Amino acid sequence: MSRVILHIDMDSFYASVEKAAHPEYRDLPLVVGADPKEGQGRGVVVAASYEARKYGVKSAIPISRAYKLCPDCKYIRPNFALYNRVSRRVMDILREFVDKFEQASIDEAYADVSDIVDYGGVRQYANTIREEIRGREALTCSIGVAQNKSIAKIASDLHKPDGLTIVLPEESKSFLAPLPVRSISGVGRKTEEALKELGIETIGHLAEIPGQDLVKIFGRNGVWIWGIANAEERSEVLERDEIKSISHEHTFSEDASDPSVVRNEIDQLSHMVHRRLMRNSMAFRTVGIKVRFENFATFTRERSLPDHIEGVDFIAAEANSLFDEFEDMGKKKIRLIGVRLSNLKETREKQETLRTWTD
């Protein structure tokens, strides 16, 4: 059976995160980068919103050139701490929906969902992921679906922003054939020029070249290029790091003074971490909480069991018990609450997914 691989790519991530954090920027052409100083600034564009791209502004061009193209753009300096925080939350959302997951960068990831959904139900499944990210983070993403990682990545880029492109396995080669060779991730300008000198401009042309000839031209990379062009790439979706803990946090829109409000959120967070625990077929031995007060003073507490368990009721009970210590700390308001599971191990049998995506 053909694999079902997703490539999830956040749309104009840095600029979109800024717009989500600052609604006043929502409809403006936005450039993240250095101060343009009326066209005399140094540095480059880190990211540009889709509105700014209409003026020709794109990432990596000099900020002085960007200013000449769009002097009326809103220019802001990058806030990498914010982007990393949002990225972690987005990746946590994705992990709730998939079994095999691989984060490729701060704003993109692969997922192998072959054991969860087939091509008949993958559209509904992918749309649910997009809606979840939009609802929880006010961000859009584009998703490509295909039988391998390379085609899924190419597909995710075709209908940006907020797009979904599904390439059926039997359509893989015909999908690739008319696309320029530059569509292959890793084929840069020099490789493109070298191929063009050989009369090779599309992926279809590239697929017609014998693999040994490409190896003579490009060395070991020739095998990789041939495999992608012929829809034969089969690299696995692999989590880069072993999961050592699972956590979710919530920052209150207004600092909370009512303990019942905090405890309600603890219950919600307990169910969220439990959902991820089940998705990864794991059990836990340690429950922890994080409490951040209005003055940003932050405290953590945890409690360990003699053995690993899986129950959501115990998570909520232990997390609430740990919170008892903080409930009577004067009139201090709470800014953030978090629940964390650690000392994880895989369960013996994979949990059957509770969702049917083929309805």
Question: Could you explain the architecture of this structure?
Answer:
The strands form three sheets. A five-stranded mixed β-sheet has the order 5-6-1-7-8. Helix 4 crosses helix 12, helix 10 crosses helix 11 (221-229) and helix 12 (259-279) runs antiparallel to helix 13 (312-327). The protein is built from 13 helices and 13 strands. It is globular, with a radius of gyration of 24 Å. The longest helix has 21 residues, at 259-279. Helix content is 38%, strand content 23%. The chain has 359 residues and is an alpha+beta fold. The chain folds into four domains: 5-14 and 81-171, Alpha-Beta Plaits (2-Layer Sandwich); 20-79, MutS, DNA mismatch repair protein, domain I; 177-229, DNA polymerase, domain 1, CATH 1.10.150.20; 245-346, Dna Ligase, domain 1 (2-Layer Sandwich). The protein has helices at 13-21, 50-53, 63-69, 80-97, 122-137, 149-156, 172-176, 189-197, 203-207, 211-218, 221-229, 259-279, 312-327; strands at residues 5-10, 30-33, 45-48, 74-76, 100-105, 108-112, 141-146, 164-166, 245-256, 282-293, 298-309, 334-342, 345-346.
Enter the CATH topology name of the largest domain: Dna Ligase, domain 1
Biggest sheet, spatial arrangement of strands: 5-6-1-7-8
Shape designation: globular
The Rg value, from CA coordinates, equals 24 Å
The largest pleated sheet is described as: 5 strands, mixed
